Structure prediction request, 470 residues.
Amino acid sequence: MQNIYLVGIKGVGMTALATYLKECGNNVWGSDIQDKFPTDEVLHEQHIKVLKGFSPKNITNNIDLVVTTGAHGGLTNIEVLTAQEKGVKVMTLAEEVGQLMDGYETKITICGSHGKTTTTSLISFILRQLRLSSSHLVGTSKFSGYYGGSFGGSDYLVVEGDEYVSSLGTDSTPRFMYQSPDYIICTNIDFDHPDVYKDINAVKKVFVDFFKKLKKNPKGRLIYCIDDVALRRLAEVLPEEKRMSYGFSEDADLVLHFMHTEEFQRAVFSARLHGEHLGVFKLPFLGHHNVQNAGSAIALSILLSLDLTKVKSAIALFKGLSRRLELIYKKNNIYLFDDYAHHPREIRALLEAVREKFPRSRRILVFQPHTYTRTKMLLNDFVHALGDADKSYVIDIFASAREKTDGKITSKDLEVKANQMHIKTISYVSDKKIMSELAKELKRGDVVITAGAGDVYKLHEGIISVMNKS
Prediction:
């Protein structure tokens, strides 16, 4: 047993690591800011102590290892510097995950610009349902009855791989480059994280570098979505025998065919492997992107020689994860959902899934942009995506813990750009006025969706009050 201290313990990745390490038999605690986080409930349930704020006094002599988040200064955080002065071993989250991975028989990383958390959760769930000796580290608080991090055996480890840098300003290594998986699943590639990547080509390069790690691994295989044009081309960096494609395209090794929705709640689809029909699958939520995510899990199951009948049953039982089109409340025939979507592509996929589920309802989106750099660089794309809703309210930008405003971009700019593009359904509303606007707008039959990677979920109590009065 080790005494392990986590700096920035409330982040979803750090909380997942905390619960995993505790289930491995370690003594785990850490520190973070006092703000309310979605992970607070998990840390409380697991009796993991969280110290308020960062202080040199928190680094006591009994600590064996300090693991730091990339936020709150990362490797320059005062607690990290204190630990180094005391000679305590310090690792970033990315380094620790990579080291843990080396202890497993079969190592699986899910990466991609969008959908990696859902896909990682689904694959982790399938392995657990099949009662295999498996563990996982997923960037979410909970999913389908499991914590985001959990130890359940040492045969398989499923982890989420992130292309963002390990510690901004001090370690520019993409986080997934610390991992050496046997299987890489890549869902798609898109331009994101403009604070560290100047364009899509820079993003592509780090993914290619990651894929190349499979070349020296005799077991190494890349499973990729062939529907993504950029990814289709980049996958060719590996020889054909080291890759397997999935998707709706007839060119895929595993061809998916969306059949229909069932009771506006489940996506029903079929799969073919090199012409061989594998049967019909039912996924308990909607969206073509989620069918693609499920396709990657089926492809991996085939390569792992898992029982597809059991895999099919497991997929049907998967309940998703928090903040992914999560139903929060229903009253007066008005629904409130919450989602983590914070990129234009994710917003479009979210609104498409809501349309499938509620084809006759108005979709009222309350969107909180995440980071100034992303909002600025993808401004036009955001406007086009937000325009897909019947009405979009944009509240103030949520800055990440690693950036400060430069005063050159605000949420109001989204409304201004929308007007210039003759899109009249997008309005900027301050956080203080959003409830009064919703009170005037909402009517029975509407579907309200809060979306963003910040703390937009804190609006739920007020929105529920508005719904109750509608």
Q: What stands out?
A: The mean pLDDT is 93. The chain has three domains: 3-92, 102-317, 326-469. The longest helix spans residues 288-303.
